[in-house]
Amino acid sequence: MKLVAGDVNRVKDEYEYRDKMLRLAEVAAKTEPQFKEEELFEYHIYTLQRPATIKENQTKQISLITADNVPVKKELLYYGARYYYYNQHGEAITNQKVGVFVEIDNKKENNLGITLPKGMVRVYKHDNEGSLQFVGEDSIDHTPNDEKIRVKLGDAFDVVGSRKQTDWKKIAHDTYEAGFEVSLRNHKKEDIVVKVVEPIPRDWKMLNSSHEYKKTEAFTAEFDIPVSKDKEAKLNYRVRMRF
To answer: Three-state DSSP class for 84?
Structure first.
């Protein structure tokens, strides 16, 4: 028996196989014909192309879709919160978890490019002895081809994040400045990059920052912070906001 230690994301029971519809199976496909997919009105229908035998009191899983050598992008994300910026007492949450996500581009060049029905996605990884170990699961919505699939696996075990408010200043009756320091500690045996996502409210302007940022949405600043193995990296920035 092997035990995986850490915060593994699990979908709550009330959502698990809620409608008993088709889902991504956990077993590998056999050589027999599997499901045929076709459009039906504004939906898609999947038809099994061979007989399937189910014995009395038996539960059986049949592979819906199989694809090999699909590129997967792993991301480590550290999220802030909007209310941090309204707070002049520096009460930001410290030691917040760093989320682990994988992203798949559902395109033909990635050996996919197929319509995926809503359901559960479970992810497994080979350990050093070659055994498959469960590393997380998440639910996905109905996903057409050429769209991205994003799955949260859980929270990182060896990557720790914390933040503190370093300054708060009222510039005018509707204008404020706040400074923050985000610390990221990497206890892994490899270098990593952590994406820090800061949801800054209202009309804002970045005054200075120790790292480059992108304004990905009207109220979002994103930083890609490299952290060497067994090292700590600190992001410092100051932002001006008008409420």
So the answer is: helix
